[in-house]
Design brief:
The structure is a homodimer of 86-residue chains.
Chain A lengths: L3 E6 L1 H10 L4 H8 L3 H8 L7 H10 L5 H4 E6 L11
Antiparallel strand pairs in A: 1-2
Helix pairs in contact in A: 2-3
The structure holds a DNA duplex (30 and 30 nucleotides).
DNA sequence: TTTTATTATTACCAAAAGGTAATAAAAGGG
DNA sequence: CCCTTTTATTACCTTTTGGTAATAATAAAA
């Protein structure tokens, strides 16, 4: 399989945003229409983004634009990940 | 589960775009970094969008913007879909 | 019309994302 | 400090998405 491009979220930005708006992960999750665990895992880098998260966020937080919150990340084909040198 | 928002693609627009650019589904798939079957299923409404499709498209086709190709769709919680009357 | 190549569709399976519910951690109130 | 409430984390399972490969459909060439 060739190189693909995933969408990733700027977690530091989003965490700061939630703090500035005094929103808990659960409140945020409820607003964008996903479960609190989904939000938690995404903020902690344990899950990639799905269409629900992206859509829910952009649809419900009009002060957050795609460019502001998300970016692209090149994913190498299976088995070609960069290995740790340690 | 509450109402969630999915991202959907304007299939008519995208199909017309591919024709205008003389791109087959396979060529398009290769460019955006997903398999041809993924493209086919999305164009025919048999699959929802994933982050790879969205990211691959926006990253590789700079004349296509998020607003131009995608839109939002409210999904009702499981078991609350609108039933056919027939 | 048969053969070959390209394009589109789908069955099958693997990987990833999402939810529920249980648990842990943190914050307040007494 | 103990009890309660809110918030965050994760184990377990279900649903959805993605790829490969097989098949079907279409087109182009001889």
């Amino acid at each position: 399989m060739k190189n693909s491009v995933d969408i990733v979220v700027n977690t530091d930005f989003l965490k700061a945003y939630l703090i500035s708006k005094q929103l808990s992960e659960s409140e945020f999750a409820k607003t964008i229409g996903v479960s609190h665990s989904t939000v938690n895992r995404i903020l902690n880098g344990k899950r990639n983004l799905g269409s629900k998260f992206i859509g829910g966020l952009l649809k419900n937080f009009h002060d957050l634009s795609f460019e502001l919150v998300f970016s692209y990340e090149n994913k190498l084909p299976k088995g070609n990940e960069v290995q740790s040198v340690i």
